Please model this.
Amino acid sequence: MQVAAPKTELGDNDLAAQAMSGRISAFKELVERYQRRAYLYALGMVYNPDDASDLSQEAFVRVHKHLKRFDRKYPFKVWFFHILANLCKNHIRQRKTREKVIVGSSDEHDMAVPISNNPESIFDRTELQAQVWTAIEQLPEKFREIIILSHFQELSYDQMAEVLEIPRGSVMSRLYYARLKLREILEKMGVEL
Model:
């Protein structure tokens, strides 16, 4: 009986370095680490599950194609999300020029696993998640993007600054105003915080 090789405990940058030297399994592990997070980020930006899937896959294709350009002194996660963010922004711009606006339903954004098995508790959590995603969808793109990077991708201020190519102070300011606007939208929706 052959046992599958265990996943490595290497950091992202080490895996990227191994992938640069041609080790396919290292790149595969990076994809596995970031696949879900990439999809959820793209879904939060473009609202369409098919487009989100395509964009997150395209980000991995571009990462693989340009892996030699990766500078190991910076976190792989920042470089990856910078590529994905640009793909999403380009997609949104192209969609706007085609005047095609399709918004996916809120239930597609259900990401969290309920803590309780109580049906009422599950319903309340799912309803709240749907309301939060509906509110996030109403945010301007720059606010929506920073909320997703901060709260769903858990990037630091410095990492968000690199992804968005703006100063750290601008990240802090933008996040502050994005949270205010999100709170305002949720209050108008009647969501108690």
